[in-house]
Design brief:
single chain, about 650 residues, alpha/beta, Nucleotidyltransferase, domain 5, three-stranded antiparallel beta sheet
C-alpha cells in the first residue's frame, strides 16, 4: 500500500532545521479540544495493485473501509489502516489466500477434467460396442486395456481408462442396449414396419422367441432389419406348458405394448411354415389377420425352398449321401496328409474334404462340388487303402466311387445345385422383393425345361401347369442334365449301356418332378401383390411403356390398405404417372439399390421441373420393406449361439 506507506514515512521522517531551532515562535495558548475529526476514504489508497486486492471503499459509508482478506470493516483512517495492514492476523491470512488458487483457475481445471472424463467414457463405450458387434469375448477387455496403456503411454485418455469384463458387460447392457432400444422404439412409433419371428432352444434348453422388425430407416436411407426382442417362451413362474399360437402372440403383443408401439404400424408378418405360425385357423398369422386387417402375410421362401429340395433329394439312392459322409469319416489329419500325394499326382488343388451337415440337399452343395473336384484322387487313394487296410468301410467307399451311376448323380447334383443360388439370394437382408416373383418363375421354368416340352411350358400359365403330366415329357435322349453328364453319356462305353442310362434318367426325372411339384405347392404363382411389386424396380418404374401395362398403382394400394389409405390413392397415382417424364438429378442413378433410389427421390424438391414424388416414394419404400424371408431371424440364432455359448 504505497500511498499509505508514503504518508506514514513523510510524517515520521520530518526533522527540524537550524532556522527552526534559532527562532522561537510566539507563545500561543491553544484551545484544548477532545473532539476527533473523522477522515474520509481516499481513492488514492487503491492506486497500488497490492492494496487493491484486500482494501475497498464502503459504498454506503465514506468513513469506513473493508478488508476482503478477513472480511471485516475498519475505519477509513490512515493510522487504523496502517496498523491493520501490518498486524499478524492480516499477514497470516494473506499467506493463506496467496497459497489458494484463483477461482478462475479452479473452474478451468474442472472443465478440463470434465472433458477428459467424457473422452474416457466415449472410448470405453466405443470399445464395448466394437466387442458386442463382432461377438468378441468380453474377457479380452481386461487384456486390451493393459495392452493399450503399454502401447500408447503418452495418451491421457487411455491412461485414465479402467475397462474390464465386468464393466464392459454393464456398459453393453445398461448403456448401449438401452440407448439402441430407445432409438429403435422412437422409430417404430412413427414408422410402418413388418414383424419376423422364429423360435429356437439355446444351449441351456431354454426356448426363446426372436422378434425382428423390418422397415425403412430414414436416418440410414435404406430398408433395414433390426433385432427387437428376445422373449423367453416358458417363464419359471408361468403355468404355460406348450408354445401355442395364443401364447406366442401374447408374448409378442406384450413386447410391443410395453414400449407403446401401436399395432396400427404393423404392415407385414413373416415366419417359417410351421402350423403354429402359419396355420389358417389357430396360428400367429390368423391372430395378426384378426388384429391387423389387411396385413401382408408371407411364408419364409427360404424355408419353403429348403423343404422342396429336401423332399426331392429323397428320390436319390441312399448311397449318394452315404458316400459323402463315409469319405469324410475316413480322413484323419494323418490320412489327409497322405492324400495330398494323390492330389499332387493328379495336379488337383490341395483341398480338404468337407463334412456334410445334417441338413440335406442345399447344405451339400459345397460337399458335392469338392468330391467331384477330387474324384480321380479319391478313386486311386481308396483303391490303395483297400489293398492295404482291407476294411469293410473302405471297400464300400471304393465300390461307390467306381459306380458310374453314382458319379452321374453327383455330376447331375452339381448342375442342379445352381438353383441354390436362388435360395442364397433370398437369404439376403437387402431388398429383393421386387425381383422375387420373376426369379422364382424363371428358375421354375428352367427346372421344367430339363424334362418337359418347352412349347407346353410357354403356352401354359405357371399356376396351372402340371409338372407330373407325362404326356408332355421330352424323350429321354432330349432331356438335359448338364454338360458334364452329357459328355460322359456320349462316351462309347456308356452310350451302349442302356440300363445305366435308363436308371439314371428315371432317378433324375423323379427328382425333378418331385422338386417342381413341391415348388408349385409352396409358392403361389398367381400372387397379385408379388406380380405388381416387380414394377417398382427403378428400371421399370422410369419407363413410359410400363404405364401401358400398369397405368395405375390402385390394385397394389387396394391390396395393401395398411400402407396407403384411400385419400392418398389419387396423389400417389398422379406422381406415379408423372415419374417417366422426370429427369433424374445427377445424384440419382437407375442402377442404385432400390431402396436408395426411392429414398433419394423422396428427398428431391420440386426444383425447376415442378414435380415432387414424396408420396409415391414413401409408398414404395414401405412396400419394398415387406418381408420376403425369415433369414434375419436365423442369423439371430447364430448371434445368440456366439454370445451365450462361445463368448
Amino acid at each position: 500500500m504505497s500511498s499509505l506507506r508514503e504518508d506514514s514515512e513523510e510524517i515520521n521522517n520530518t526533522k527540524p532545521t537550524d532556522v527552526d531551532l534559532d527562532i522561537t515562535p510566539p507563545r500561543k495558548i491553544a484551545k484544548i479540544s477532545n473532539k476527533h475529526r473523522p477522515q474520509k476514504f481516499r481513492d488514492a489508497w487503491l492506486q497500488h495493485e497490492d492494496d487493491k486486492q484486500w482494501l475497498s471503499k464502503m459504498p454506503d459509508d465514506p468513513y469506513k473501509a473493508k478488508c476482503h482478506k478477513r472480511n471485516i470493516i475498519i475505519k477509513a483512517e490512515l493510522t487504523v489502516i496502517k496498523n491493520h495492514m501490518f498486524s499478524k492476523v492480516h499477514a497470516s491470512r494473506s499467506k493463506l489466500l496467496e497459497a489458494q488458487p484463483a477461482i478462475s483457475k479452479f473452474v478451468k481445471k474442472s472443465d478440463e477434467v470434465c472433458t477428459k472424463t467424457k473422452s474416457v467414457q466415449a472410448l470405453e463405450v466405443k470399445l464395448c460396442g466394437f466387442v458386442a458387434e463382432h461377438n468378441i469375448s468380453l474377457a479380452t477387455l481386461t487384456h486390451l486395456t493393459t495392452l493399450l496403456k503399454s502401447a500408447v503411454p503418452d495418451s491421457d485418455i487411455i491412461k485414465h481408462m479402467q475397462l474390464k469384463a465386468t464393466k464392459g458387460t454393464a456398459i453393453i447392457k445398461n448403456v448401449i442396449a438401452k440407448a439402441e432400444k430407445e432409438q429403435l422404439q422412437n422409430k417404430l412409433q412413427t414408422s410402418l414396419f413388418s414383424v419376423l419371428i422364429d423360435e429356437s432352444t439355446d444351449f441351456g434348453s431354454i426356448q426363446m422367441m426372436f422378434v425382428i422388425v423390418r422397415f425403412f430407416d430414414a436416418e440410414e436411407g435404406e430398408v433395414v432389419s433390426k433385432f427387437w426382442d428376445l422373449c423367453q417362451v416358458f417363464e419359471p413362474s408361468s403355468d404355460v406348458e406348450s408354445a401355442t399360437a395364443r401364447h406366442l402372440f401374447e408374448l409378442l403383443t406384450k413386447s410391443f405394448e410395453e414400449y407403446e408401439i401401436a399395432f396400427k404400424n404393423i404392415i407385414g408378418f413373416a415366419s417359417d411354415g410351421a402350423s403354429t405360425m402359419m396355420g389358417k385357423s389357430n396360428s400367429v398369422a390368423s391372430r395378426f389377420i384378426e388384429k391387423c386387417p389387411g396385413i401382408y402375410i408371407f411364408k419364409c421362401l427360404c424355408h419353403s425352398l429348403h423343404l422342396c429340395a429336401s423332399n426331392a433329394c429323397k428320390k436319390l439312392p441312399r448311397s449318394c449321401e452315404d458316400l459323402a459322409r463315409n469319405i469324410y469319416g475316413e480322413f484323419s489329419a494323418k490320412r489327409q496328409h497322405l492324400f495330398q500325394k494323390f492330389q499332387t499326382f493328379f495336379e488337383i488343388d490341395v483341398h480338404k474334404i468337407l463334412r456334410p451337415a445334417q441338413t440335406r440337399w442345399l447344405s451339400l452343395k459345397a460337399v458335392v462340388s469338392r468330391i467331384i473336384e477330387q474324384w480321380p484322387a479319391l478313386e486311386l487313394y481308396f483303391r490303395e487303402q483297400m489293398l492295404t487296410s482291407r476294411l469293410k468301410s473302405i471297400e464300400k467307399i471304393t465300390q461307390a466311387l467306381n459306380n458310374p451311376l453314382i458319379k452321374f448323380l453327383y455330376l447331375f447334383l452339381d448342375f442342379i445345385y445352381k438353383f441354390t443360388e436362388l435360395n442364397e439370394l433370398f437369404q439376403s437382408s437387402s431388398v429383393v422383393v421386387t425381383s422375387l416373383y420373376e426369379k422364382m418363375c424363371r428358375s421354375y421354368q428352367e427346372l421344367l425345361e430339363t424334362y418337359m416340352s418347352r412349347d407346353y411350358i410357354d403356352r401354359t400359365d405357371l399356376s396351372e401347369l402340371d409338372p407330373c403330366n407325362k404326356t408332355h415329357y421330352l424323350p429321354s435322349e432330349h432331356m438335359y442334365f448338364g454338360v458334364e453328364v452329357r459328355k460322359i453319356l456320349d462316351q462309347n462305353e456308356i452310350r451302349n449301356n442302356k440300363q445305366l442310362k435308363s436308371d439314371f434318367t428315371i432317378i433324375c426325372v423323379e427328382l425333378l418332378v418331385e422338386g417342381c411339384s413341391e415348388i408349385k405347392k409352396r409358392f403361389n404363382f398367381s400372387n397379385p401383390i408379388l406380380k405388381l411389386i416387380t414394377n417398382l424396380n427403378p428400371q421399370k418404374a422410369m419407363l413410359k411403356k410400363t404405364r401401358d401395362l400398369i397405368p395405375s398403382l390402385l390394385p397394389l394400394m387396394e391390396a395393401l390398405p395398411r400402407i396407403a389409405s384411400s385419400n392418398q390413392h389419387q396423389i400417389i397415382d398422379d406422381e406415379w404417372r408423372q415419374l417417366p417424364y422426370f429427369e433424374l438429378p445427377g445424384n440419382i442413378k437407375i442402377a442404385d439399390p432400390i431402396d436408395s433410389f426411392w429414398a433419394k427421390l423422396m428427398d428431391c424438391g420440386e426444383g425447376d421441373q415442378g414435380m415432387s414424388f414424396k408420396n409415391v416414394s414413401k409408398f414404395v419404400l414401405n412396400v419394398i420393406s415387406l418381408p420376403h424371408s425369415n433369414a434375419d431371424s436365423e442369423r439371430i440364432f447364430s448371434h445368440i449361439n456366439l454370445i451365450k455359448t462361445k463368448t
